[in-house]
């Protein structure tokens, strides 16, 4: 006999129609050029000049005014050539569509290349052709009859755009700096992937905060902590641009039994080879039996985060992802890089930074390590193992930031339940009926943890500690597995099955039986 229980993990696959792609731009001082103009560099002539004009107007702040109007028949900034020539406008007036086709391609490339101008809706950017009494033509860039070329709701935010942009750069640079400290591009990419899905929660127009509806598909999700698939992809793109790592957005479809849905995700480069990454797909929404979203209490951390779509080649994703190798906007044919045929093995990356907690009878307690090091060795590297001891399972009033203690502080106090063994692994003995471990880069203040939980690089589940004096015999998890059971209207449905095998059952003094293996292991890969 095997006892099991299911917990549904609902992965919401959000539709992202092309007309809804918000504009994006990035500060050129923050990136390496090769990372920021994949689509723009495929433009030529008039299309490239229009693209460069949009980028310059973002950089100099002109686009922060949603009602701005600028004549593109005149040279912009230090340029000597106007984006739109008199001949080009005259040809348009005589029925030639090249100008408007080039304008459409330029707007598309601008939106795909630059995630920092999240507030611009390129579908509302228009060119109006006017003529003056001297016979000269004017190509006026602006909102036209749209009132503003900003996204709906931008004006509702209390902060001005300059302040928001500063906060965005600060938040993205923090992730970039932490990732950049790791060895190897693949580990850096995994860290960015993991931090994005731990910061943002997957939401749609009906499940998000009302004020965030218009910005779900933008990099602003990094601050609101609510985004859809496009918002995840653009946030990953923005952070990687700051790091100077080659990456682009891919446009295509993801196929389910309900048909093909338009989707945006990322392509990233490792050692000259391109792989795919879909952070939103790796951040499932947790729901209960009533279909209500279940939150962990920590913004961005909903549970179920995984790396199923990290550094994938065509071998793993061809049945689901379909990225067009080329497509046409206006009269411009855009192409994407050749994606690897085989996925990159990320299992080796997990060994680089693993939070491991093992209950062992031989030690009469828990061996806890991070990166195969104990508390003291990690503290010397600026990383800290935390523990919290609980006498009972917590209720909803316990915050993720409550009751943490620093392991190195307990060691210094010669605590009876905390010591490093000869292998350098932390051992907790008789510490409390329930234990939870975590890792943080936040240093202690007077020996105490003062964070709010958002700085935790990783946590274990709350673990039953059968070594505690007050502990009763109780079921212990032997294994867990995740399997795809099919799909529902809003995406794929997964069931997490936890099982206890009969060969682990042992009798208790009162005659009842519980499963209780000699060793329980939990581990979680973390990138720091």
Describe the 3D structure:
With 528 residues, this protein is of the alpha+beta class. The protein has 11 helices and 27 strands. The chain has a 5-stranded antiparallel β-sheet with strand order 18-19-15-14-27. Strands 16, 17, 20, 21 and 22 form a 5-stranded antiparallel β-sheet that branches. It has a 4-stranded antiparallel β-sheet with strand order 10-1-24-23, with no helix packed on it. β7 and β8 (259-270) form a beta hairpin. α1 packs across α3 (98-113) and α4 packs across α5 (185-199). The chain is elongated and about 90 Å long. The model is unreliable at 1-34 and 472-528 (pLDDT under 50).
Q: Could you say which structural class the secondary elements and strand pairing correspond to?
A: alpha+beta
Could you tell me the radius of gyration in angstroms?
27 Å
Query: Segments where pLDDT lies below 50 for 5+ residues?
Result: 1-34, 472-528
Give the proportion of residues in helices: 10-25%
Number of strands: 27
Strand content of the residues, in percent?
25-35%
Nearest-integer average pLDDT: 75
Shape from CA axes?
elongated
The end-to-end distance, rounded to whole angstroms, is 42 Å
Number of helix segments? Answer: 11
Biggest sheet overview: 5 strands, antiparallel
Order of adjacent strands in the largest pleated sheet? 18-19-15-14-27
């Amino acid at each position: 006999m095997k006892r099991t229980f299911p917990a549904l993990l609902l992965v919401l696959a959000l539709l992202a129609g092309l007309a809804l792609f918000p504009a994006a731009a990035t500060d050129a001082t923050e990136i390496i050029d090769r990372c920021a103009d994949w689509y723009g560099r495929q433009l030529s002539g008039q299309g490239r000049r229009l693209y460069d004009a949009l980028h310059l107007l973002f950089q100099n702040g002109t686009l922060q005014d949603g009602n701005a109007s600028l004549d593109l028949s005149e040279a912009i900034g230090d340029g000597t050539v106007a984006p739109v020539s008199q001949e080009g406008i005259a040809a348009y007036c005589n029925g030639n569509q090249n100008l408007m086709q080039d304008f459409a391609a330029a707007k598309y490339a601008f939106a795909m290349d630059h995630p920092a101008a999240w507030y611009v809706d390129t579908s509302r950017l228009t060119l109006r052709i006017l003529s003056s009494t001297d016979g000269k033509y004017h190509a006026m860039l602006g909102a036209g009859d749209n009132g503003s070329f900003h996204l709906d709701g931008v004006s509702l935010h209390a902060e001005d755009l300059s302040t928001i942009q500063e906060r965005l750069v600060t938040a993205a640079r923090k992730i970039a700096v932490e990732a950049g400290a790791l060895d190897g591009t693949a580990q850096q990419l995994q860290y960015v992937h993991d931090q994005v899905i731990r910061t943002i929660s997957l939401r749609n127009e009906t499940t998000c905060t009302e004020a965030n509806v218009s910005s779900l598909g933008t990099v602003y999700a990094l601050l609101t902590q609510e985004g859809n698939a496009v918002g995840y992809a653009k946030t990953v793109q923005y952070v990687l641009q700051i790091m100077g790592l080659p990456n682009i957005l891919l446009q295509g479809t993801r196929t389910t039994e309900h048909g093909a849905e338009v989707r945006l995700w990322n392509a990233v480069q490792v050692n000259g080879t391109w792989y795919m990454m879909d952070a939103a797909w790796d951040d499932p929404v947790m729901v209960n039996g009533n279909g209500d979203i279940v939150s962990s209490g920590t913004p961005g951390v909903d549970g179920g985060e995984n790396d199923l779509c990290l550094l994938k080649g065509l071998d793993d994703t061809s049945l689901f992802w379909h990225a067009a190798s080329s497509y046409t906007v206006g009269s411009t044919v855009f192409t994407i890089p050749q994606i690897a045929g085989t996925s990159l093995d990320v299992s080796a990356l997990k060994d680089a930074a693993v939070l491991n907690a093992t209950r062992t009878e031989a030690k009469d307690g828990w061996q806890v390590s991070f990166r195969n090091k104990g508390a003291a060795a990690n503290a010397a590297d600026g990383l800290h193992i935390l523990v919290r001891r609980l006498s009972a399972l917590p209720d909803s009033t316990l915050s993720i930031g409550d009751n943490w203690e620093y392991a190195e502080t307990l060691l210094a106090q010669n605590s009876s339940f905390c010591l490093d063994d000869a292998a350098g692994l932390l051992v907790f003995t008789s510490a409390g009926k329930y234990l939870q471990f975590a890792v943080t880069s936040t240093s202690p203040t007077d020996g105490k943890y003062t964070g709010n939980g958002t700085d935790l690089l990783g946590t274990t589940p709350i673990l039953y500690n059968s070594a505690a004096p007050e502990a009763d015999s109780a079921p212990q998890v032997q294994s867990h597995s995740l399997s795809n059971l099919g799909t529902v209207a809003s995406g794929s449905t997964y069931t997490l099955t936890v099982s206890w095998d009969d060969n682990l059952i042992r009798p208790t003094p009162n005659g009842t039986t519980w499963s209780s293996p000699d060793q329980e292991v939990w581990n979680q890969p973390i990138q720091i």
